[in-house]
Amino acid sequence: MTDIAEHAPVIQRRMTLDNGLAVTLLQVPQAQHCAAWVRVAAGSHDEPREYPGLAHFLEHLLFLDSAGFPADQGLMAFVQGVGGQVNASTQARHTDFFCEVPPLALDGALARLFDMLARPALDPGAQRREREVLQAEFLARGEDRETLMDGALGLALAAHHPFGDFHAGNRETLPVEEETFQQALHGFHRRFYHAGQAHVLIAGAQPLDALAALAKRHGRHLAPGARVSTQPPALRLEPAHVEVQAPGPTQLALYFPLVLPTAAGAALECLFRVLRSAPSGGLQATLRERGYAERVSPRRVYRADDQALIAIDIEGASADEATWSEIVTLLFSWLEFFATRSDWADVREQEFLIRSVRWQTCSALDAVRMAVEKGGNEPVEAPALAALLTQLTPGAMVSVVTSTRELPLLERPGFALRARCSKGLSRARGAPVAWCLPERNPFLKSAAAPRAVCPVPAGLRWQNDADIPPGHAALFLRWRWSTPVADVFAGAAQAALAPLVQAAGEAGVELRLQCSARDWVLSLGGLASVVDRVLPEALKILRQPTAEDWRDALDPAPRAAGGMLLRQLLDELPGALQGSVSVAELPADALPGAWRALYHQARWDAFGLGQPSPTINAVLGELPGQGLFEGVSAVNVRSTCRWIEVAGQKEQALLLFARQAGLDAPAEAAWRLLGNVLQGAFYTYMRTDLQLGYGVYCGYRQVGEEAGLLFAVQSPKASVAEIFGHLLAFLEGQQERLGQLTDEALETLREPMAAQLWQPPATFRALAEARWALYAQPGKQPAERIARCVQELNRAALLDALACVRQAQAGWLALANAAPPDPRWSLG
Length: 828
What we know:
GO terms for molecular function: metalloendopeptidase activity; zinc ion binding. The chain is of the alpha+beta class.
């Protein structure tokens, strides 16, 4: 074993309540927050075939009014009010509901969670409004590549199977006005949403007896019932190659149906990890070295009992059939190599160590997710791994590739699929490859003897106190460039670090590189002994990216975004706030030398959290450039109203960031509370009242060194100009609403916000980010002082903050896939 596995273990207990509810309790010693996860054993494949989307629709409806709590006091509003997170997901044979909250809020969260599951109102008027939300979601998903690729797989089904049917739901498939639909909806809820069909998992640092008491108190509200037995038909595919029309760069996916052996969860996770492995000699590295693709991303598409369907996504694949055949050939060559490696003792040992680290460093929500989705504490059994590998054969594979060319429209309900099916891809005749098993992760070994005491370099400051968990550390290393740095340098650095990011993550350290035109921040956080060993490797890699790294940076296609447009805009926001990144004007062969010059001339400073490390002191003491603790100031690129137009999809999306006016504690307190006050109202106004779409967000956000209010809307029917008009109208309407707040109402808003700020951050990473923000932004105040200011806020302070937002006093930044709607905006 290693020193990594010497932390307190997660303790589990299983029990069954008198009503038949299955309960799993997890004591997670390192968790700062608590989590609850309910899995109902019913999903889209259990719904009546005449009403596609009914199961997904019910999942949405449960978050509205229930017998005990109106929607504005329900689970979503409650969790958001205490700074937690909440979500749900409808799958083929199950539906999940989960949340993470501070410990004092767990009782209230469970009360609302079980009430909405057991006693939903299912109001017809609310159903009509929520159906429009599903319609908007349906239209947005119709542009999503993964959705279209999985849907096109139905062309290769050997016999009818629910997997090939449409289940998302839309306006046409959910006739809420019809009595027969209402009977089906209520009947589905009665049949499946009871204790015999559910499993609840609760995790936190509390003793298991305390968690058990909460489970009994709230779990008893689910009605008793017998487990419904369902037997899904066999999932069989005919070998085929499917081309599907979809936006964005080419993506190739290779699908395999599986019959799952015993202990399949851990074995499948192990296989996925080896497929993703980045070091030389593996599948991903070979594809990248040959210029065939950027990365290999396996995923589970479907599971029901012992049936499963997996996809091996080949991202950034070249757009020609000869390359696809080469990729397929290399995949099966690698699978044949891996299948003959005896009992995979080294691979299974590494997987055991990685899973041990995850359990010892996870949050409460991660703990329940691992318990329910990733095989829990199962060991990786050699027979299970062998059983999976024997099924990954050319005769079982269906390949699906995206294309932007016009293809025939398929006559079928649901998403508008344009696709063509042909015989399977042929295997190319290639030279043998010298495959290698993944090397042992060096960071999973026991730590080396510590270095002797080493002086702290001029550019580094350490902070250590009782709030930092024992054995944990974080480091933030910031480079400041004298002139804007071209995006190609950031691209090469990110590509170079990718294998190390994976290896560090397996050993309990999160490694990130955040790049903007004026500064870069390398951050590491997690187990202190691993941070010490990862930092030198990261700096060694950054000094000299490889030729493949520069090639990837110069080719924008593999980095092109897919998926929901709003998420793409959110990904662009941090860099946009720092100003546009300049474009390199150097020839490709001059880039490595130019980078070396930049790297050696940079100014830098660093902030360490935890017990001061002689290793980090020594490494940073030798870092090129000039280490400066004081006098390094950011170049803030600002415009009163700045608009960035991005390439987009058919739908329209607008993201607007209103910068916070002032860094003092009263200002941040007012802006944070304003964000909480506006959040629910904005959601109701845009999503429910105007029914613009399902992609709606409003809240206070810290993005790098900038803080402010973020508004985001994606709509299938409103233009960007119309969305912006609705946003202005919303803000205007809030002036009257805030002015009418009573003292009692204001107190109910202040109290949970202040309590949220007094709570410790949910994860060590969040704690480290908060401490870094205090260091990196002179004038920023600690959470405790902001909490005290929140308790003293009055209506006038909220109205002043709202006026700052409406008048763009500290600046607006907008990202959208359309031109600006009026002359107030400057471009870029």
